[in-house]
Amino acid sequence: QRRGRQARSAVGLAAALAAALLLALPPVGRGPAGGTRPAEETIEQVWPTAQRAEIPANLADGPAYSPGYFLDVRESIGTAPSPDGRFLRLVHRAADGTVRELRRLPADDSPQFGGFTRSGNAFAWAETTSDEQGTGRTELWWIDLAAGGPARRVTADTGAIAFVDSQYDMVIEGGRLHWVAAAPQDRTATEIRSVPLAGGRVSVRTEPGAWVRSAWPWLVSAGSGETGPVRLRNLEERKILDVPAGGTELVRCSPSWCRVLVLGGDGPGRIELMRPDGSQRRRVASGDATAALVDVAVEDRFEVLSLADAQVGATGSLRLRLYDLRQDRTVTVAEGVGTVLCRGGVLWWSTGDIDATTWHTLDLRSLA
User: Fold this and answer.
1) How far is CA 280 from CA 59, 258, 304, 315, in A?
2) Which of 336, 359, 363 is nearest to 58 (CA)?
C-alpha cells in the first residue's frame, strides 16, 4: 500500500515537473518562409581552438550507442543493446572506441539508466526496471573511474525518485549521493534524500512544495511560475530566495541565472535571462527559438538554443545555437541537429537519421 502511495505521489510530482518544463520552454517556430537567411558567426570563427569531436553512433559489435555522460569530448558512458537484443547495457566507451561493460539489465524489464553524475573519479547513476505488473524499482550504483573495478550498488531505498533530465538530478557532494523524491503523503511535498557512496542508511528530510535539485547546495521550485512563486532554496544556509516574475512570464532558474519566457499577445514571445534578483536582465532570443536544455545558462555562461530551420524544417532538423552571456553574442554551433544534451561542461548533439547517425561534442570549458 505504501508503494502505491509513493507511485501516486511520484506521478503527481512528475506531472508538475513536466508541466513546468513545457511551460518554461517556448514553442519552436519557423524561420522566414523565403529569402536569404542572415549570416551568423560559427563556432569555428569565434572559437577556433575549441575542443570538439565526432563519434560514430554504433559500437564495434553493432548496436546503436546513446551517450549519457561525456568524461571529455571523446570518452563517455552510455547505453547500447546487446547484439542479441536481450539486454540493455551500460558501457564505458574509451577515446579509442574500446568498450567496457559496466552493467546489463534484461530488455524484458523495460530498463532505464539515468541520473548520471560525476565528482572526481566517482561516477554514479540510477537504473530502473519494471516487473510484469508494471511496478518500477530503482537502484543507485557507482564506480570508481580510476580504480577500474566493478560497479557497486549504493542503495535500493530511493523513494519515489524524481528526475527532470537535468545534469543535477543527482549530485555527489561530501562523499554522499543526493537526489529528491516525491513524498508518499497525499500532498505536494518533496523528500530530500542522500546516502553515503559506500552504502548505508538513507537520510530523508521532507520539505513542503515541489522541488528539484540544482547546483549544490540549491533546490529550485518546480512550478516555473504557473502554480506559485519561483523560489530557490539553499540547503546549507537554510534560506529561500523569491524570484520576481510578471504575470505574463514563465521562469526557470539556476542559482546564478533565470530563463524568462515573456509571453506574446498574438504572436511569439521572447526569451530573456536575468539574475535571480531580477538584475542584469537581457534579451536572448525571439519567439522562434526554444531553450534546448532544461538547465539554465550552463557553466553560468551559455544558454543553449535551438531553432527550426525553414530550409530543413520538413525533416524536423534544428539549428543549434549558443548565446554567450560573457560576450553578449549568439553563435551557430551546428545545422541539421536532432538530440541535444549537456553534462559536466560537455555539450553533445546528433546529426543524420536512424540509418546513419553521428554524435558531435563540444567542450564548453574550452571556449575562451
Assistant:
1) 46, 10, 18, 38
2) 359
